[in-house]
Design goal:
about 300 residues, alpha+beta, D-amino Acid Aminotransferase, Chain A, domain 1, 2 domains, eight-stranded antiparallel sheet
């Protein structure tokens, strides 16, 4: 992506110059957090650019919109074609893609009634979510004092902008204290997830990840890792996890579309395992890299080529 200027953003059915992709200052979403978004990655392969699990990401976006009573004015197939269009017009072979559905401006006030639903799809330069040097030595994480939002407050299963104030506060706290990332607990004290990543831990050759009922976002990469791990012969269990189980795990790693797969070497200044990348994490990273670059025929179903 270096040296490539991204020129166009798709907004409400039109390609708009990057610098003119603007919204009114009184936009409902700006004041009240009424927006739902997705994050996708387009990877460079020998067959050209390919979007990883595009239909699954779009389906989650539409589920979130339904849960929060947004009426998206485009079909899922129209949305899919718009993603391809914005990749083509910007002439990129790999990028991060941010689709967002948000309430625009009509009048001031909390009511969503008759407020226009707006849609944008933007390609972004986002090669590394975490600093590569920090990712290589393993992430240093803290258990945040901010708890993960509960199901009776906002839906943790929806990638809504309002939800992410929770993550922003936890991330800021971690960075102030010198950590790379925060891990949030539920009100019951169960491990939930990072500020933008799902969590896995390995113990005695078995993988464990927190379940949906512990306020976990249904991550597309999380789902992919579970399937990959089972294909590699690992047992995967979804169950509640306590913070001390992170400290005593053999391996801990995080997964997400933006961050991909990153191992954690320390939690709350406790070294995880030997403080180095473990064999399960390494195997999954290698497998994932092969899949997204089109080198694993078995997983071609997860790639949609931009032809």
């Amino acid at each position: 992506m270096a040296g490539i200027e991204l020129k166009k953003i798709w907004m409400d059915g039109k390609l708009v110059p990057w610098k003119k992709a603007q919204v009114h200052v009184l936009t409902h979403a700006l004041h009240y957090g009424t927006a739902i978004f997705e994050g996708l990655r387009c990877y460079s392969t020998k067959k050209g650019p390919a979007v990883f699990r595009l239909k699954d990401h779009i389906a989650r976006l539409y589920r979130g919109a339904k849960s929060y009573h947004f009426e998206i004015p485009y079909s899922q197939e129209q949305f899919r074609k718009a993603v391809f269009q914005v990749i083509k017009v910007n002439k990129v072979d790999h990028c991060y893609i941010r689709p967002i559905i948000y309430l625009g401006y009509k009048t001031m006030g909390l009511s969503m009634k008759d407020v226009p639903v707006k849609v944008a799809i933007a390609p972004v330069r986002f090669d590394h979510y975490f600093d590569p040097k920090k990712a290589e030595r393993g992430l240093h994480c803290c258990i945040s004092s901010w708890h993960r939002i509960s199901v009776n407050q906002l839906s943790p299963h929806v990638k809504a902008s309002a939800n992410y104030m929770n993550s922003v506060l936890a991330k800021a706290e971690a960075e102030r204290e010198g950590f790379d990332e925060a891990i949030m607990l539920t009100d019951e004290g169960h491990v939930s997830e990072g500020t933008g990543e799902n969590i896995f831990l390995a113990r005695k050759g078995k993988l464990i990840t927190p379940p949906f009922y512990d306020s976990v976002l249904g991550g597309v990469t999380r789902e992919s890792v579970i399937e990959m791990a089972k294909d590699l012969g690992y047992v995967v269990e979804e169950k509640s996890v306590l913070r001390d189980e992170l400290y005593t795990a053999d391996e801990v790693f995080m997964t997400g579309t933006a961050s991909e797969i990153n191992f954690i070497s320390r939690v709350d200044d406790v070294t995880i395992g030997k403080g180095k990348k473990g064999p399960i994490t390494a195997a999954l990273q290698k497998k994932f890299r092969g899949i997204v670059t089109g080198k694993e025929p078995r997983y071609e179903k997860w790639l949609e080529y931009v032809r």
